[in-house]
């Protein structure tokens, strides 16, 4: 497995594969299928200060090779995550990335300060790009000044490195990436979901109760590849790549675009074994490509 | 709960756009119980991407077969309907908590109320209740005569009434009207069908012990994605929730908001 290990700020990973936040709960469901220690890391579901129920149902809708979701950051709240979910995850020797979200700056700071002190949290993923939450998310994630200010404040209180999860729903993602790098971000996660919509032609109404949702799955992979390709040439911090990853070949493509590890999202819903399957399959693809260590591929399409 | 490739032993239309599909695969069959569901991948590729939740209609552990009944209409279920005997489909299951049999004792009467494509899970439930010595009464609602299926199979197990909205088969009216008109006597209720029907049952029989099987659009089917949640009744904070895929799909009457 030494061909796959990866060292990123805060994250010492046995392989570069992690489930993406929001697509893996807090790990309990997938632990019924396989040993979570097979994973390089786990990005847990977003934590907010308060308990959140999220948006009304229906919250998911299918699209061609993708899905729309408008879950709305449902989670049991910071205190419960600290006391229950993270404590449960301590039984596994795997670094945890805590995704944090909020509706105002103070929320982010409170969650970041407290959750970063949990002993198995090795990094924070600053979720400034959730497209489904009306009163937040978008504002932070689409304005470089607001995003960099928030990054700076969270960096001040966090005990662990901070990765900023960028929204693809912007005109210039490079501008956003550079802004948060200058504000001290240790890494980037990209991309979050693309804002999308479906309409029921019989009811003449949006399929999702929320109207809009975030598009994920193989349908968005080319957008993710393009954005990582652009951003990785403009910044010097590492990128956790995500967006439609479902095979070992996809992982290679993300590395060649400029990612240093990869998160698997929607594919977990289709095949609960997708993460360990990709990990087991990666050496085969490396052999086919004549590559000794996967890190040799980072940015290989433009270097 | 496992992921298994199951072979299609039989696929046939049994009503208008309704198909009966028999799947073979011993391991998953051994784990299944009444009221649980399967998450079926209908294509090899990524379009459509998500699995389809389909309730289990019959479990035959001796033959290693599961029967599911589904309505074709959407893109995914239409693709499933084209699959032939001998083809293999990826199945995740059995999922969810099904109907508990313990709540109705031997000799008691269970009223099973089904609506449309909510009827199938009641069949295995009825088989199991009868096996326990429970008397079963079925009231099954459909839109019209072309939508009716499994009438004779249910009749073999107990008293069976069919309600159709247009009166083209059985009695005209809703399932609740049939129960009222026939003055049916029962100890427990088990139901699966459209939410308005479940609501009407809850309103009509608030004091009866009963169980309702819910439906909602699902992502993962295993509790990880939080797509299919519902509110818990009597929760002023509106933050408590149940996941339909893993806490349900069967809930006690009055447990969750419909």
TrEMBL record, chain A:
Taxonomic superkingdom:
Bacteria
Q: Part of which pathway?
A: Pyrimidine metabolism; UMP biosynthesis via de novo pathway; orotate from (S)-dihydroorotate (NAD(+) route): step 1/1
A GO CC term assigned to this protein in UniProt: cytoplasm
Q: Tell me a GO biological process for this protein.
A: 'de novo' pyrimidine nucleobase biosynthetic process
Name the positions where substrate binds: 45, 69-73, 127, 192-193
Annotated residues that bind FMN are located at 21, 45-46, 99, 127, 165, 191, 217, 243-244, 265-266
The Dihydroorotate dehydrogenase catalytic domain sits at 4-286
> Cofactor stoichiometry and binding?
Binds 1 FMN per subunit.
Q: Which keywords has UniProt assigned to this entry?
A: Cytoplasm, Flavoprotein, FMN, NAD, Oxidoreductase, Pyrimidine biosynthesis
What PANTHER family does the annotation carry?
DIHYDROOROTATE DEHYDROGENASE (FUMARATE), DIHYDROOROTATE DEHYDROGENASE (QUINONE), MITOCHONDRIAL-RELATED
UniProt family annotation: Belongs to the dihydroorotate dehydrogenase family. Type 1 subfamily.
Kindly provide the name given to this protein in its UniProt entry: Dihydroorotate dehydrogenase
Q: Which organism is it from?
A: Anaerobacillus isosaccharinicus
UniProtKB/TrEMBL annotation, chain B:
Question: What cofactor does its activity depend on?
Answer: [2Fe-2S] cluster; FAD
* Positions with a binding annotation for [2Fe-2S] cluster: 220, 225, 228, 245
Alphabetic keyword roster: 2Fe-2S, Electron transport, FAD, Flavoprotein, Iron, Iron-sulfur, Metal-binding, Pyrimidine biosynthesis, Transport
Transmembrane region(s): none
Record-annotated FAD-binding FR-type domain positions: 1-101
Any one GO molecular-function label of the UniProt entry: electron transfer activity
The record ties this protein, via InterPro entries, to:
Cyt_c3_hydrogenase_gsu, Dihydroorotate_DH_ele_sf, Dihydroorotate_DH_Fe-S-bd, Dihydroorotate_DHASE_ETsu, FAD-bd_FR_type, FNR_nucleotide-bd, PyrK_electron_transfer, Riboflavin_synthase-like_b-brl
Pfam families, sorted: DHODB_Fe-S_bind
Which Gene3D superfamilies does the record associate with it?
Answer: Dihydroorotate dehydrogenase, electron transfer subunit (2.10.240.10), Nucleotide-binding domain of ferredoxin-NADP reductase (FNR) module (3.40.50.80), Translation factors (2.40.30.10)
A GO BP annotation: 'de novo' UMP biosynthetic process
Q: Binding residues for FAD, per the UniProt record?
A: 52-55, 69-71, 76-77
Q: Pathway of this protein?
A: Pyrimidine metabolism; UMP biosynthesis via de novo pathway; orotate from (S)-dihydroorotate (NAD(+) route): step 1/1
Comment on bound cofactor: Binds 1 [2Fe-2S] cluster per subunit.
Q: What does this protein do?
A: Responsible for channeling the electrons from the oxidation of dihydroorotate from the FMN redox center in the PyrD type B subunit to the ultimate electron acceptor NAD(+).
Task: Provide the family line.
Answer: Belongs to the PyrK family.
Q: How does it assemble?
A: Heterotetramer of 2 PyrK and 2 PyrD type B subunits.
Q: What is this protein called?
A: Dihydroorotate dehydrogenase B (NAD(+)), electron transfer subunit
- Protein's gene: pyrK
């Amino acid at each position: 497995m030494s061909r796959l290990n990866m060292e990123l700020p805060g994250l010492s990973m046995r392989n570069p594969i992690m489930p993406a936040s929001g697509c893996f709960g807090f790990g309990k469901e997938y632990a019924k299928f396989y040993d979570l220690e097979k994973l390089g890391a786990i990005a847990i579901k977003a934590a907010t200060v308060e308990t959140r129920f999220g948006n009304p149902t229906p919250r998911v809708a299918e699209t061609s090779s993708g899905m729309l979701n408008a879950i709305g950051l449902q989670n049991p709240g910071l205190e419960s995550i600290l006391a229950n979910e993270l404590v449960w995850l301590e039984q596994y020797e795997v670094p945890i990335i805590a995704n944090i979200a909020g509706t105002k700056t103070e929320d982010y700071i409170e969650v970041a300060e407290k959750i970063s002190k949990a002993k198995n949290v090795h990094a924070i993923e600053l979720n400034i790009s959730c497209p489904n939450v009306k009163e937040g998310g978008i504002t932070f994630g689409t304005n470089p000044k607001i995003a960099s200010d928030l990054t700076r404040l969270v960096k001040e209180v966090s005990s662990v490195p901070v990765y900023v999860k960028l929204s693809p729903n912007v005109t210039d993602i490079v501008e956003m990436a550079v802004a948060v790098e200058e504000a001290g971000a240790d890494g980037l996660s990209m991309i979050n979901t693309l804002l999308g919509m479906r309409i029921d032609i019989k009811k003449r109404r949006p399929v999702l109760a929320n109207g809009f949702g975030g598009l994920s799955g193989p349908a968005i992979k080319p957008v993710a590849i393009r954005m990582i390709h652009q951003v990785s040439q403009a910044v010097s911090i590492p990128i956790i790549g995500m967006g439609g990853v479902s095979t070992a070949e996809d992982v290679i493509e993300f590395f060649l675009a400029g990612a240093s590890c990869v998160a698997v999202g929607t594919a977990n819903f289709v095949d609960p074994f997708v993460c360990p399957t990709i990990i087991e399959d990666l050496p085969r693809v490396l052999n086919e490509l004549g590559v000794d260590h996967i890190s040799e591929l980072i940015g290989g399409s433009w270097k | 709960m496992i992921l298994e490739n199951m072979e299609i032993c039989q696929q046939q239309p049994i009503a208008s756009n309704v198909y009966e599909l028999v799947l073979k695969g011993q391991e998953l069959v051994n784990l299944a119980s009444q009221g649980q569901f399967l998450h079926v991948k209908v294509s090899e590729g990524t379009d459509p991407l998500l699995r389809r939740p389909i309730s289990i209609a019959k479990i035959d552990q001796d033959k290693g077969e599961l029967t599911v009944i589904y309505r074709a209409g959407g893109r995914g279920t239409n693709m499933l309907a084209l699959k032939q005997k001998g083809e293999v489909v990826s199945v995740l299951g059995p999922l969810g908590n099904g109907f508990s049999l313990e709540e109705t004792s031997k000799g008691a009467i269970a009223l099973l109320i089904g609506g449309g494509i909510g009827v199938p899970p009641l069949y295995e439930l009825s088989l199991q209740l009868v096996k326990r010595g429970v008397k079963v009464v079925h009231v099954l609602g459909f839109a019209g005569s072309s939508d009716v299926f499994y009438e004779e199979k249910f009749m073999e197990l107990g008293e069976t009434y069919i309600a159709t909205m247009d009166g083209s088969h059985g009695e005209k009216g809703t399932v609740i009207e049939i129960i009222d008109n026939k003055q049916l006597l029962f100890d427990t209720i088990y139901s699966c069908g459209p939410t308005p029907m479940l609501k009407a049952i809850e309103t009509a029989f608030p004091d009866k012990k009963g169980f309702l099987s819910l439906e909602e659009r699902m992502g993962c089917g295993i509790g990880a994605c939080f797509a299919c949640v519902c509110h818990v009744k009597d929760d002023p904070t509106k933050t408590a929730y149940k996941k339909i895929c893993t806490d349900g799909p069967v809930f006690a009457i009055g447990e969750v908001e419909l």
